[in-house]
Amino acid sequence: MDKAAIVTEEEARDSSATPDLWKLVTVHRVEELKSIIRMLPIWASGILLITSSSHLHSFVILQARSMDRHLSPSFEISPASMSIFSVLTMMSGVVLYERVFVPFARRFTGNPSGITSLQRMGIGFVINIIATVVAALIEMKRKSAAAKFNLLDDPKAIIPISVFWLVPQYFLHGVAEIFMSVGHLEFLFEQSPESMRSSATALYCITTAIGNYLGTLLVSLVHKYTGNERNWLPDRNLNRGGLDYYYFLVSGIQVVNLVYYLICARFYTYKPVEETTERNKEEDLEEANEHVSSHILKDGGEEEKRGVTKDE
Fold it and tell me: What is 40-271's CATH topology?
């Protein structure tokens, strides 16, 4: 990539010609592109986090439909409303993170943010794995309750188990979002060049899109390779499926993704944000001083010319 900033002999011969920006760019532009490419392995690790949590909007709702959702004899919760627990966790958790966790961690690390963005993402990955394992264990409990009351073959039956058994996984997924998603966006924003931070935000949005597509692909592959008789994700009767196996599969994929992330984070070199900022300030001051100096010299030259004219 450095070759893109090297002036060839042909270009050097005709110095007055306008350079072709597709063939010759400044060193600054080359370094900006390097910064973006250096972030891509860390960026890619966030895709599977979205894939692993995509079931919150599909299979968990099917689970909730088959469980007791009553808060009182006459009032019951809508299955799709269960996601409110994840939202509430994120809303309250972000405040607690900034007001409690960051000052506490700052005492030990000396980092103004408490912990680095890579450490924050790593914690989010671990919590998300725990959340998926908990989801698998809760599904096993739901199916055992259905077997106990002989409701495995009745897909429309309400199993006598409270829907609030699903709250722990919503809570854990919300905590994982606080660490991973916020840390992911913070990492992309801080480590990207200043002129390309909007592109870094776009990369974060692309992560969500690719993650959801991979979630759909994973479900299709499970449908295809688990067969019709023992399908893990049946269309009609979830009680006879293997949703818990699917959750364990997703947990295993996340463990592999965590190992990949740790390797990438181990070899990643942070961009020195403070040093870069100070260097940019110094460069701006030097440019300003040069600009002022040129104006002073120009004004001084004009005054000398005027003085000579008057003498004449």
Answer: Growth Hormone; Chain: A; (1.20.1250)
